[in-house]
Each structure stands twice: as structure tokens, then as C-alpha cells.
Amino acid sequence: MHDYNIIKFKTISSTNTYLKDNFESLPEFTVVTSDIQTGGKGRMGREWQSDEGNLYFSILLKNSVNKIKKNSISAITLIVGLAVTKVLNEYTSCMIKWPNDVLVGNRKICGILCEAISYDKVKALVIGVGLNLNQTTFSNEIKSKAISLKNIINKDSDKINILSKILKQFDLEYAKFCKGDKGYIAQLNKFSYLNNKNAYIKGENVKILGIDDNGLLKVEARDGVKLVTSGEVTLTDTYEVTK
Fold first, then answer.
1. What is the residue-averaged pLDDT of the chain?
2. Residue 114's domain is classified under what CATH number?
3. Does one domain contain both 184 and 203?
4. Percent of the chain with pLDDT over 70
5. How far is CA 145 from CA 4, 109, 130, 160, 240, in A?
6. Is 159 a domain residue?
């Protein structure tokens, strides 16, 4: 396992922002954690509710990214999701919702945000994870869409222990990924929440076929099978929207 350089805060605006601002002076595999985030963000700049009691952390990847094909970098978000899912499945049954969520049932327990720092080429990746761990109540806006581990197992979880497990699992998954091992694709599809469901993506009605070798979403649309690189995924039966 890599020797992770862990920096802990009580309160911070955003663990992702801290790593983006300081990536040049920090070693690869630096991890920043905070008990509270005052400016946490999800995909597309959405605010991430960051209450105390949950697990918020970001991982810095630098040199290892240079060895990865550019069209495969987006799959790293899913690699992190796979690590989180495997750890949480020790406690409950959960699934990965492409591209960046982990769900229990149809409620979100974890969100992942991967941000690239690039000039002429990608110099670093910062991967942020927000895991609903010990929170018990949520705002009216998201309470029907969110869940915490404590809601499920009715007791607090040790954040340091859960973080250690996730980093250890990520280390295993990422090492294989960097070596070109595509075994993670079968595992992603095994845990994929969307597979074989009908959904709307960018206003188009499609059937989700699975996740391809580069972490893209393979769908069957009116004009044939195609790959989706990004976008909102709205299920036609529940209208559950990926945040």
C-alpha cells in the first residue's frame, strides 16, 4: 500500500480546492480530510451538503496519471466508486451509479468529484469523496434522495477506520488499473445500478447497456448503440437524477 500523506482539518472550504491550490508542493497520494466543508461541491458546481459526522476527503494523483491513456482518465472516478462500494458492502448492499455516485437502494450515500489540473497535458488529478457516514437527518430538499450508513446500521462508524479501508481498497484497484488490467470493468458492471434500465440522457430516451472499457456508458438509442462520455442520467421510472 502507498504511504499516504494525510492532512487533517477540522473545517475547510473544500478538500478538493486545497489540493488544487497546493498540488505542486505536495507529494502524490496526499490525502486531505476535514470534519466539515463550508464550500463542498458536487458535479457541475452543485453545492454538496457537508455536515459534521460524515467523511470528506480528497486524493491527489500526479506522476502515475502520466502513464494512463487520456481517454481512460475518466474511469478513475469509477475506480474510486468501486473501492467505496466494496468497503460499504461489508455493512450494507450498495451499487455504483455512473458516473460518480454510490447508492443504497435508490438513495445516495456517496458522491465523487474528479477534477483534472491541466495545461498542455494533465498534470494532476484531484478526487474528492463525500460519504454520508454518521449523519441522521438531511434537508427537505434531499432527504428523499440521501441516506447515511448510520441510517442503515443504527450506530456511528469510525471515520479513520472507514477511510483506511477505502484507501487500502483504492490502492489495490488503482494499481491494477495503472498496469492496464481491465478486470475492474466486469466488477463495475456487476455493481452498476443503471445497467438494463431505461433512462433519459440529454433529453434522449435510451436503454443502458453497461460500462465500456474506458469507463464510458454504453447505451442503445433510437439511432443505434453509442457511448456517452458525460451527462445527467434520469431514470424513466423514478426520475432519479444523478447529482
1. 89
2. 3.30.930.10
3. no
4. 92
5. 33, 9, 15, 26, 8
6. yes
Question: β-pairing, 101-104 with 55-61?
Answer: unpaired
In a domain, 105, yes or no: yes
pLDDT band at residue 241 using 50, 70 and 90 as cut-offs: very low
Same domain, 131 and 212: no
| DSSP letter, residue 240 | P
DSSP letter at 193?
S
What is the Cα–Cα distance from 75 to 43, expressed in whole angstroms?
Answer: 15
Same domain assignment for residues 131 and 225: no
pLDDT of the residue at 236:
66
Residue type, 41: K
The range of the structural domain enclosing residue 165 comes to 5-190
Alpha-carbon distance of 89 to 153, in angstroms, equals: 12
pLDDT, position 242: 39
